């Protein structure tokens, strides 16, 4: 791994402020996406830099290390895959790629069932058994047909379709206990809850949260704003609202509990670590390469829903 620079001292200064202070900056990056807490470290993709980085907190100050790089990939997500490796979504490269725990590139998967080329793999999550669910978003336009899909790639390398005809399939998160797959249908501005059977087929579907009915999200200024990355806790879901710089917290029944704000409008990813800190990542601009952005961290007292 290559050290690419220490994180700003803001990391420590902000944490000492009051409960309503801004979140701490823990890393800078080029279009940060796909936050993953794994093995005591936070990994994230940088679509604008064709790499996956890791925030290493084993030093006096956190540093960002380069874990993996592949020119033309445009990575947007990383999820645990197989016995000890990862699956990385190459959003721009139109495939997903297996990577070992040490960052060595393995198999590439670019053809969906039926022989179709993957279009733009976006978000992903592990299934708890070595496989991965991932979204293949479709066209990012409100006038485009609903062409988004969700796939599952087993640890053995079998790719199957889980859902289709979504208006830009985006964030995904899987609750193995209830076998519920949460999916952000970004351009429909809603989150779906898909109940799966033991074979991964959808047996029930419902709308978990509808942003058009949510007072905290009903008003938006960016025309393509919508729910993006999802992070699960035992009692809560955190959802990034892309284009509006907001993180919404919901209880497991779909009730809105809190809304947090971040400085980067194009927030696309959220994750919790083992100490109940809530991370969020995104870019300040989605039209000016290399898409400068940051990863921030909310301490537990900053994100907890008000009583």
Provide structural commentary:
By secondary structure, the protein is mainly beta. It has a single domain (2-296), classed as 6 Propeller (Neuraminidase), CATH 2.120.10. Helix content is 3%, strand content 52%. The chain has 2 helices and 25 strands. A 5-stranded antiparallel beta sheet has the order 1-6-5-4-3, with no helix packed on it. A 4-stranded antiparallel beta sheet has the order 2-25-24-23. Strands 7-8-9-10 form a 4-stranded antiparallel beta sheet, with no helix packed on it. A hairpin with a 4-residue loop joins strand 8 (85-90) and strand 9 (95-99). It is globular, with a radius of gyration of 18 Å. 48% of the residues are buried. The model is unreliable at 1-19 (pLDDT under 50).
Gyration radius (Cα, Å) is: 18 Å
Tally the helices: what do you get? 2
Low-confidence stretches: 1-19
Helix-strand makeup class? mainly beta
């Amino acid at each position: 791994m290559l050290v690419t620079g220490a994180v700003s001292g803001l990391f420590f200064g902000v944490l000492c402020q009051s409960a309503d202070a801004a979140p701490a900056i823990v890393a800078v990056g080029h279009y940060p996406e796909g936050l993953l807490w794994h093995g005591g470290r936070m990994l994230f993709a940088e679509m604008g830099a064709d790499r996956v980085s890791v925030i290493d907190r084993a030093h006096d100050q956190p540093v960002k290390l380069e874990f993996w790089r592949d020119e033309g990939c445009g990575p947007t997500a990383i999820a645990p895959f197989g016995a000890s490796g990862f699956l990385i979504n190459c959003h721009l490269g139109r495939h997903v790629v297996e990577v070992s725990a040490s960052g060595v590139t393995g198999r590439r998967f670019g053809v969906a069932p039926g022989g179709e080329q993957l279009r733009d793999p976006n978000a992903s999550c592990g299934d708890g058994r070595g496989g991965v669910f991932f979204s293949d978003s479709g066209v990012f336009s409100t006038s485009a047909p609903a062409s988004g899909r969700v796939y599952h790639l087993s640890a053995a390398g079998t790719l199957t379709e889980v859902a289709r005809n979504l208006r830009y399939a985006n964030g995904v998160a899987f609750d193995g206990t209830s076998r519920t797959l949460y999916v952000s249908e970004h351009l429909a501005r809603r989150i779906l809850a898909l109940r799966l059977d033991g074979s991964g087929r959808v047996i029930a579907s419902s709308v978990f949260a509808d942003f058009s009915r949510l007072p905290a999200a009903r008003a938006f200024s960016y025309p393509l704003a919508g729910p993006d990355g999802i992070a699960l806790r035992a009692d809560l879901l955190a959802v990034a609202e892309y284009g509006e710089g907001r993180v919404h917290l919901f209880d497991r029944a779909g009730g809105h509990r809190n809304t947090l704000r971040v400085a980067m409008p194009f927030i696309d990813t959220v994750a919790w670590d083992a100490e109940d800190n809530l991370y969020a990542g995104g870019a300040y601009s989605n039209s000016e390469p290399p898409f400068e952005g940051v990863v921030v961290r909310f301490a537990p007292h900053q994100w907890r829903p008000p009583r």
